[in-house]
Design brief:
Elements: E1 5-9, H1 13-24, E2 28-32, E3 52-54, H2 56-64, H3 68-71, E4 76-78, E5 80-84, E6 90-94, E7 102-105, H4 107-120, E8 124-126, E9 130-135, E10 140-145, E11 148-152, E12 156-159, H5 166-174, E13 178-193, E14 208-212, E15 217-222, E16 228-235, H6 249-259, H7 261-264, H8 270-276, E17 280-288, E18 291-292, E19 295-297, H9 300-303, H10 312-330, H11 335-365, H12 371-386, H13 394-399, H14 405-423, H15 428-431, H16 437-449
Parallel strand pairs: 1-2, 1-12, 2-8, 5-14, 12-19
Antiparallel strand pairs: 3-7, 4-7, 5-6, 9-10, 10-11, 13-16, 13-17, 14-15, 15-16, 18-19
Bound molecules: NADPH dihydro-nicotinamide-adenine-dinucleotide phosphate and (2S)-2-amino-4-(2-aminophenyl)-4-oxobutanoic acid.
NADPH dihydro-nicotinamide-adenine-dinucleotide phosphate binds next to α1, β9, α9 and α10.
Length: about 450
Amino acid sequence: MKKNEITILGAGLIGSLMAIYLKRQGLEVSVYDKRPDPRKSPYSEAGRSINMALSDRGWRSLEQVGLKEKVLPLAIPMYGRRIHDEHGNTTLIPYGKENQAIYSISRGKFNQLLVEEGERLGAKVHFEHKCLDVDFTNNEVTFETPEGEKQFNPNVIIGADGAYSALRMSMQKQVRVNYKQEFIPHGYKELTIPATSDGEFAMDPNALHIWPRGKFMLIALPNPDKSFTCTLFLPFAGTKVCFEKILDEKDLETVFRSYFDDAYKLMPDLKTEFFKNPTAALINIECYPWVQGNSLLLGDAAHAMVPFYGQGMNCGFEDCYILNGLIEKLGTNAWDLVFEKYQKKRKPDTDAIYQLAMENFKEMRDSVGDPKFILRKKIEAKLHALYPNEWIPLYTMVTFSEMKYAEAYAQGKLQEAVMDRVMADPLITENWDKLDYEDIITQLETSKAV
Ligand SMILES: NC(=O)C1=CN([C@@H]2O[C@H](COP(=O)(O)OP(=O)(O)OC[C@H]3O[C@@H](n4cnc5c(N)ncnc54)[C@H](OP(=O)(O)O)[C@@H]3O)[C@@H](O)[C@H]2O)C=CC1
Ligand SMILES: Nc1ccccc1C(=O)C[C@H](N)C(=O)O
């Protein structure tokens, strides 16, 4: 191993982007992933992927490595949530200002683009290398490969090997790492709304479609081939509508006709897909520290969160951006110092987005269908238009800004308390346009001063 050769575990979105950053710093980089090379033997993601929503933090990280223009053709802007009620009527709730959008993107091609960019810059990517163990005492990593087990002695290890990280498991066995994992009661299943027979999108392509039904929901995100990737989120068991109770095509038809009839009419392959695609679990993982000597956990390996804010990838990309900034500032002679600074700086922010991701699930599956929620959003949008610096809606702070997640969270909580008081007025529906908006800002300023 050469001095300053970096080993990255995981060629997912975060491992690949980190490899690009490090190559651009002139470092030697080797990436190891347990999957086969997708270019040689297609490893199908089909049936178990949720489309992601690229937003400002993600774009900033891609732009810094010159990739924004290459990624744009894979992404479709969504300017708001299109809410479908049980009668098939829809309402658009904008995400932010008129030109602000989050971008639907699916994992496969995007991941490949990042891997290829890393290789173009000189990173060595080794597929079919599954990390089995990292021995910190002897500084040795063991991989399972088609040729048998292999051992390496890397100088620096970055574990971007996802929610079930082998680096993290090795840390847990050998050093004092706090760890918490929680499966939520819901699982998800991937479904599809294909393009129409004349090759068009079957619904508005520039929105994230939501069928909020209280304890469960269906969502749909557009793809460049004019299909939509849909994700059905249901409890596994224990409620009237849950995966456990959909046993045959008749049960499935009853659920879809009762709750998602407009979507049902656009899903010719529903019955096949539902019973063919796996039902996947949703997990939250928190751990700390993320560092052991010259080894660091990054992305989902450090903080896997439920997908409901659409921030998992954006947060992981921001991890890379911040780590890169520290490397630029502190140099590459003391990786343990760089990693230590990184974890201290970053942890409060990943805690905040982890929390917000859970809270956004309730908002998506339940609140968005409530006219009072829509009114609340309208009032907040007006406040933001009148007082752009004083009142920034939480969604805007998280999605369309680079403000630290922890700051956004704290500011969001103060705004939420003020808005709760505003919305408590029984005449708010009639009065909302005549509200004393300046007084609302004063209330916020007062609560900040306390
Ligand atoms: N839309 C989706 O369905 C998914 C989205 N994401 C998004 O990506 C974001 C960040 O993901 P990221 O942190 O890159 O994690 P990922 O899970 O995307 O990538 C980790 C990579 O490491 C591989 N890997 C796992 N274990 C080992 C091992 N022991 N040795 C070598 N390689 C291993 C994984 O293979 P394998 O996957 O086969 O385990 C995968 O290719 C998430 O927050 C989420 O937003 C991530 C996963 C799925
Ligand atoms: N990509 C996702 C995947 C699954 C669940 C939600 C998303 C979202 O992006 C949600 C979006 N940010 C929203 O708040 O409407």
